[in-house]
User: What shape does this take?
Amino acid sequence: MSTLPDGLGLDRRATLAVGAVCVVAALLVPSFASGYLEDLVLQALVFAILALSWNLLAGYAGQISLGHAAFFGLGAYVSAWLTTPGAAGFPEWLLTHAVVAIVAGGAAAALVAVVVGPAVFRLDGHYFAIGTLALAAIIQLVLNNARSISGGATGFYVQNEFGEAGVYYLAVVALVATVVVTYYVTRGRLGLGMQAVRDDPGAASSLGVHPFRYKMWAFVLSSFFAGVAGGLYGQYTLYLNAGSTLDVGWTIDTLVIVILGGMGTMLGPLFGTAVFMLIDNLFSQVAGGLATTLEGILIVVFVIFVPNGLYGLLSERAATTPAAEDATDHAPADATPERDPQE
Amino acid sequence: MPSVDLLVGATISGLLLGGIYALAALGLTLVFGIMDIVNIAHGHLLMIGGYVAVILAMTVGLSPLIGMVVAMAVLVVVGLVLQELVGYVVGEGIEQPILVLFGVALAIQNSWQYVLDTFLFGSDARTTDLGIVTGNLTLAGVSVSSSRAVTFVVSVALIVATWAFLRYTRTGRSIRATAQNPSAAGYMGIDTDRIYRITMALGAALAGAAGALLSMLFPFDPYVGWSYLLKAFAVVVLGGVGSVLGTLAGGAVIGVSENVGAVLIGGNYRDIVSLTIFLLVLIVRPQGLFGRTEGGD
Assistant: This one.
């Protein structure tokens, strides 16, 4: 069995090769391409990390959180405070290198998840979705009102010694790290537990898979990566604003990406990011102010008619071509990854 | 520490506000209780209702109380369309309806903002005026604005009417039967699809009414949907899912705590107070302050 459980008809080596080419291409962007393209790719990198992290929580562990933007925003602010402590009124000895600050942003978001997790996981399904939406609204309101540390409506100007290119390369590394970690998590014991909890919490629990433990792991890991994405964004754009950095728009875009690509699949969020970047730019060219409307309609259409996302469509297509015939032990339409027996 | 008079005033006007919050939550609690769907687009339906009243007031000079009736009619149609969409994904799991309604909410918010900016008066916040009685009324020695009093009376009347409809009419009985057990209701000859359409249309119409009334108290812009969704959901949770009269109690708690909180710690923190109470109740007592515990998890 040499195929990855992705059903695209590519074997592991080919997938790795494609991935390596993408990474090299991304690393070459700052040297050869325009600043505009670099901005776009950085945005895509940030979105891909966000999408992978939300997918871990929602796609694999089945917890539809509508509060992802809060963890993104927290990561952005914490990393900004660490590289620019003076502007927030913090002591100067807090000053840290951007790389450390970005990781610390992720850690802070994860810490908040550890603290609020036991509370929000008393909620299920609808209640969890609305509860996380409310939690994010509270965090946004609090930061918005705490003008001295968040900059309020004027915003917060971030400084670092690392430079735009440094943050860019770091974002490429961070995405690769996110992919590797989520790959091994979802293929391993932890990920299997998450999927068991998603598919049937009762059955999982009666087999000794404690739902709360696995939900917490998913939530904390997911929040960590969302925080890192926020940190990267803040250190790259060098400007934060509680209104827009914690805006529900980040949650919305993340949802669109994962649903477009295919929820609960490894490559779905990456596909989704690429397609989203294309249509987002295309939509704003073609539809102007109506771009968000088209995104809303896309969510509706995909959830109803293409529930497995573009990734699901492609793997169905691949399953009907001869290249995938040796992968017959995978249900073609079922995009849920299985454990690779070779591991 | 603010004076006692100020606190009493805040409490009374909070109670009046609670009445309209209860109405805003009524449609949400009905759809949740009967169809087991949280209408994530509920706040956006409310926003449409508010704008129907605003447009009628601005163009033809109609009182928002008449605008409310028009808003309800418009929202019935919207609700029926929404039910067609949701019908595709019902029974497929919990996240599909959430995501579909989320998409609908986005489309409503953005397209409406676009229409306002391109064809109408722009997306700046707008409000309406009661028009018939103005000035303040004195209630138990406290002066309250007449629009608060009128919206309270109309809201409570609509809530009681909905309660009576569910309790005493044949259709109301069918709705309650479907809520209890859809298959059993089907065996008894109830067309459950029709019941679901009626419920969604009713829920949307009530959201529209609440929006029209709220337009007299607070300014509307195309983005108010999310905050009213959270407020309405807070009321639903406090009052117990599916409980019509429970919304009155939930609305009162949210209205009073918001107003008193605004007096005690400042107006900026108004929403934080109600959201925090909501989150705490959700976590500590998910069946609601006045709801009954159901067995199981």
Remarks:
- Residues 174 and 190 of chain B are 7 Å apart (CA to CA).
- Residues 4-35 of chain B form the longest helix (32 residues).
- Chain B has eleven helices and two strands.
